[in-house]
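*** Residues and shapes ***
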Amino acid sequence: MPIDFRNTNTVWASILVETLQRLGLTTAVICPGSRSTPLTIAFAQHHQIEAIPVLDERSAAFFALGIARTTGCPVVLVCTSGTAGANFYPAVIEAKESRVPLLVLTADRPSELRDCHSGQTIDQLKLYGNYPNWQAELAVPSLEIGMLNYLRQTVIHAWERSLFPVPGAVHLNIPFRDPLDPLPQLDTDILKPQLQLEDFFAHIPNSQFPIPNSPSPIPYQEWQQCEQGIIIAGSAQPQHPREYCEAIANLSKALGWAVLAEGLSPVRNYADLNPYLISTYDLILRNRQLAQQLTPKMVIQLGELPTSKELRTWLDNSQPRRWIIDSSDHNLDPLHGKTIHLRMSVEQLGLWTDEEMGKQGKRENIPGSPSQNCSYLQRWCEAEAKVRAAVDQTMTTMTQLFEGKVAWLLSQILPPMTPLFIANSMPVRDVEFFWSPGNTGVRPFFNRGANGIDGTLSTALGVAHRNQSSVMLTGDLALLHDTNGFLLKNKFVGHLTIVLINNNGGGIFEMLPISKFDPPFEEFFATPQNINFAHLCVTYGVEHQLISSWEQLKQRLNPLPTQGIRILELQTDRKADARWRQEHLPKFAADMGWDLPG
């Protein structure tokens, strides 16, 4: 058995080593030391990896570099804590400069034994500066299945980053608590029946990693043969949105898979291209029975995962096989699931799909096409139709100034191709919940890299500068955080309409458990600023209008002005709107599930 169940450290280290072996590792160079004992034992007892002990760390590192240079495959370097790892530094530099793949594993003490003069302890974080392709510190070993998934996927990413996009060194700092020796502990007995090894490692390629900079094989036939597959279109800001959406539509139609498209994806705004578009997945998945019926076996994820917590929890619980399509070298799976990254753009995948369809003839002859495997797809499409109709009916008849209706209304009435900058916190979530599919070609823009509220106004002005008349959807705190952006007014060329949802505080926090604890909730989390935005606009010379009805908002948004900056302010009730979401979002799909076909 490849996993050593004697104690927590041996389980952790042997899973790390088994993952590397399955990825293609053949050689590990091991330097002696105490803190690295779990790693040394795991490598030494693995029969398919040559473990080579070398006394001097600097010599060991260059020895490993020579092997890796010859084979083109990563070689592992292992050392104990303290200055041992510092002796790897010259070889790490050489690995970067000469593009040689190395995996550097430095053992370390846990955080509670740092900065207290515990023996053989130095600061090993970012020990090699900017020379590694990637570097991270692993969590302290744990037997919890979710943490073992995290370990496996992080090791896979480390291996990949040592090769892609340019070979070089990757540094993993690995803390271990005592006991370092393989002393038996009873707590691993609980794990044994839970850890199904073949399933746990099944998605890891059992051959050498592809040549750097070449895409992994596309398992097209495997996708075609799956009757329960979905495509998830995450947030995206492509330069050519129509071509991007066409590529997704072609893949969807070729496989007969539904496309779950979040509101920050342009896919929702080119709805005519895709007959299997699902926009209400967050609301559908709140029906637990329906979510169970719709559990997929395979998922193609395009870019990052959508914001939806419901979607993420569903994927985490069901653990489908998942392929992530993205041309970057980033790890795009915060769920640490059974994922394989295909390092290509959506457009490249679309061209490849077209070629495959040409080889196989018309779509109706493809095994996975909807004509033959339709019950699962029909479930999705029928659920979408019912929930979308319920949402649209609710929004249409709503008269009060509810925050969520703003996102829905924008999807209905903005002029074609309008650039729309969406602020973080509640606006992006309301767009995901309520943005209705259409054919307007509206282009969503956003700062979802770090998901902060800093720079919101300035970014929106940058999007709108010398561009088509643009709109920004924001809450009051995100706007107030960047009011210095109004100083750009004299240099700004074009038009920006700011749709301001002023609920006097952070509405996102009303959705969290902390909202029930007041004090300190209102003062320290909601942080109301009590700003008169009309006065603020006078200060900066910005036009301001207070919106009191939906009809008034419609009139102001189409057509849009061509010059200047203006704020359209809607004053809403933060707590009432939070209660509305909590009460009504679960209801849209509440009575569905048992009457669907299949």
User: Anything to note?
Assistant: Confidence is low (pLDDT under 50) at residues 207-215, 362-372.
